[in-house]
Amino acid sequence: MTANAQAYEGQYQGLKAVWLKSGPYEAAVLPEIGANLIAFRDTERGYAFLREPAADELQGFTERPMVHGIPVLFPPNRFEDGKFPWEGRVLELPVNETDRNNHLHGFLYNIPWQVDGFSADALGARAVFSVKVAEGDAVYARFPFAFTVRLEYTLNGEGLHQRVSVRNDGEGTMPCLLAFHTAVNAPFAPGSSTDDCTFKLTVGERWEMGADGRMLPTKRKLPLTEAEARMRDGTQSPFFESLDNHYTAVPQNGRNRMELTDNRTGVKLVYDVGTGYKQWMIWNDGAKGGYFCPEPQVNLVNAPNIALTAEEKEQAGLFALSPGEVWEETCRLYTIG
Which residues cross the membrane (predicted)? Predict the structure, then answer.
């Protein structure tokens, strides 16, 4: 049972928001900006778990809303020359990372989503958002597949639960390529510093990036360095070096997760992302401190442009949804301690 659960429409720094409140927790989602879950907080302890825009950063956030909160990337990350080969045809995506001549981050993170509903009861507060793409839509003109993405958030005493689904509404197969560019505060507790933070990430091997500087992987996988291996046992700082790396996901004890520990308070933030995410992208903005992005990703970066065998496609998370088929996965953010 959860006391005093609430779900309502309101404002977040002047932007339309759906607020969820339950026990010590509150969360806010911005439906008009990609259904970005922009805030997740423990109000009793003053913890802010996600990077939120300061008042003077708000314009920059609305223009480029991908390094705050939990943006939805579909299709995620980089595609070489904006090319996207699929089922015998080559799609042309806009090149929006011009210095590297890549398409970057897809089409859903900055457009309005529909608010399907929100409610609260003794089990918690919840809200559901969706975006439906069909022929004639602006997204369809750039990514010509008919589909629906549905995003449900539930807040209760066990933290924040996310459920996402992708449904193929078209008549042919479509790729299911999705990630979340989750921006986590490190530290999340007032009075703590970056030196108080260590983290765990369930990674296996690092994908080699091409030598041309375009941040596109080869098919080669590299063993972890000694410093990277410390991520797996939870003893590494999120800022041990500048990170813009792509890793295979290897669950530990059946779970695929990031854990961020504040060693001053003894509190651990757990981001359990589900085993449907075959890859981890991790980015820490040049190791500046303050926040980093552990990004659960279904697929290998640029996977459609890489010659892969059927087995390699499975490992890379590159797969098709048949007409009417649904892919679904869940994540959870919660604290221990």
Answer: none
- Residues 68 and 13: beta-carbon distance below 8 Å: no
Nearest to 11 by CA among 60, 44, 67, 58: 58
Comparing CA positions, the residue from 67, 317, 76, 80 lying closest to residue 215 is 80
Q: Which residues contact 83 (CB under 8 A, 6 or more apart)?
A: 90, 91, 92, 93, 305
Q: Using one digit for the tens of pLDDT, what is the confidence trace for 231-258?
A: 999 999 999 999 999 999 999 999 999 9
Radius of gyration of the chain (CA): 19
Burial label, 232 (beta-carbon count in 10 A; 0-12, 13-18, 19+) = middle
Cis peptide preceding 24, ω within 30 of 0:
no
Beta strands in 255-325 (DSSP E): 257-262, 267-272, 279-283, 290-297, 320-321
Q: Is 277 helix (H, G, I), strand (E, B) or coil?
A: coil
pTM > 0.70: yes or no: yes
Tokens of 118: 């929100």
Q: By the 8 A CB rule, do 202 and 249 touch?
A: yes
Which pLDDT tens digit goes with each residue over 152-176? 999 999 999 999 999 999 999 999 9
Partners of 169 in the β-ladder: none
